[in-house]
Amino acid sequence: MNRTDRLYALVEELRAVAPRPRSARWLATRFEVSTRTVERDISALQQSGVPIWAEPGRTGGYALDKAGTLPPVNLTPAEAVAMALALHRLAGTPFHASAATALRKVLAVMPPAAATAARELAARIHVAGPGPATPVPAVVADALTARRVLRIGYADRGGAPSARDIEPLGYVGTPHHWYLVAWCRLRDAVRAFRTDRITSAVPLAERVTRDLSPGDIDLHEPDVRALSLG
């Protein structure tokens, strides 16, 4: 294990048992280094602002203040690059802008050396996307969060334009397109609008009060299922 990964692992080990302490000897055995190396690592973490203190005595050791201002998860450079690769695949989806913001936040809380290592690793990785993706307008991307009625311009598969007031209910992603599922007031029914065919969108003052029902999604895609966060 290199030093950068060990520093991350030290913090996570102390976080897992906080507020109980871990002795330098225990940590040295756990990470297969000398106690002097552990002491140097702890000192480096303290100097970088990590709230670790030493408790004296036979049962003492190093303890971490869980209430301190630490990021909830410390990522290694490889993990940060893996996240960047996953977020790259969100290009053209309604969540692309949020994904880019998330990645910037991850890099911002990483130690400078780790962030530099992540950027150097990323520079050695090249990806080829499935093709150019049509950006989703910000007001459409934020439709579910804002819970506002939208007035959109929309082009059907033949290119014929129409203007509609819709109540956003959900998103559906398929291997080829993203759809905004909404109650269409023009058709008085639920419709799925391909995001690349939405030519304009203006949020109205009226709030959306409907909710998405399981039967509202029918795109002839047998594998469509709700997103799970674990």
Automatic annotation (TrEMBL):
Q: Where is the Helix-turn-helix type domain?
A: 6-62
Which Pfam families does the UniProt entry name for this protein?
HTH_11, WYL
WYL domain residues? 138-201
What InterPro entries would the database entry show?
CBASS_pafABC_assoc_protein, HTH_11, WH-like_DNA-bd_sf, WH_DNA-bd_sf, WYL_dom
> Which SUPFAM superfamilies would you find in this protein's record?
Winged helix' DNA-binding domain (SSF46785)
Using the record, list the residue span of the signal peptide; answer none if the entry has no such feature.
Answer: none
Q: What is this protein called?
A: Transcriptional regulator
Could you tell me which species this protein originates from?
Answer: Spirilliplanes yamanashiensis
